[in-house]
Please model this.
Amino acid sequence: MDIAIVGSGYVGLVTGACFAEIGVNVTCVDVDTRKIEMLNNGEIPIYEPGLKELVQKNRKAGRLSFTVSLESVLDRAEVIFSAVGTPPDEDGSADLKYVLQVARTIGQYMNGYKLVVTKSTVPVGTAEKVRQTIQAELDRRGVDYNFDVASNPEFLKEGHAINDFMSPDRVVVGVESERAKELMTTLYKPFLINNFRVIFMDIPSAEMTKYAANSMLATRISFMNDIANLCERVGADVNMVRNGIGADTRIGRKFLYAGCGYGGSCFPKDVKALIKTAEQKGYEMTVLKAVEAVNERQKSILFDKLSAACGTDLQGKTIALWGLAFKPETDDMREAPALVLIDRLLKAGCTVRVYDPEAMNECRRRLGDAVIYARDMYDAVLDCDALLLVTEWKEFRLPAWGVLKKAMRRALIIDGRNLYDADEVGKAGFEYHCIGK
Model:
């Protein structure tokens, strides 16, 4: 089978590489000429564990190729996945201009039956707009080709995307015809031979499922951050509370970790978009508005704790940050708590030294020379007045406390991910603050 995937960002590239791995002939399309040149040279524009090797392997095998021209692959591709960006507008709604541009191009150049699959996270009703856009182009050309539209939202976790795609816990597919259902079954059956977990449904329900899933996870995070902040005020320990409620099988243990807020490309954007969709339909998402408000407040909690420990006048202080990416195993800094924290530190007159195993180049792209980029985690804390842990990378889990203490001007650690044991850090001679204790 030949397929095309439009958009070679995080979702599109992972999707293309994984389909190629099971024998599908995949052409990835992107309007970014530089990105396509990189991919054709074996370079990967994003960091995702295992992705570079998978892309290089399947490119070498001839199953994965890259181009800037969608029209050039429409003659042979029966299925076209649209994985282009849907950035938020100023009002929080999803911007569909790239999705609809793909649909227009398909309508302008298709020469036979096509199944057009929306992989991007899009509001309910987008598939119908895609259908209308394609049909309008066919009508303009005066031709009558059959086509189907489907919705296949992604549920990939950054840092674990390859495994999530190759061994999914479920695949959600919205279809409206048996032909589309058969094609999607053919594509996904190799991943799920022993346990076929494709959930077929109508297209609006599939579009809503992605937003509902991410919003539920975001809700759990904000709920636990709210609980953590209250725990500090009443003398409780949020880690014990998490263990207590997580043992309830109706609740479970996942996404109950308190911290300094969620970020990334999905949760903030999807929560905003679902709130906006509801407003457009005359309904208020009261819970999600609270989720968003709690998260925005939580992104400032490390700065607030630093101010409480050092005094409100931070002018001239040197502060170290361990972690820049919004989560481990990615270089993604979109909506990262580190960005809010750095902004507040700089405005307070601090010198900021940063280290992240993967996101240093991304930070340079965003912030330039506003911060000092350390060579490693210990270089970051040199002569610092405080260390703020922002991202829970594995290499931060067991630092050499003695080396750390000698390097720092003041032995103060503010742990935004509750990574360390308070007693252990205290015995090492540090003043220690975390979330929810």
The radius of gyration is 24 Å. The mean pLDDT is 95.
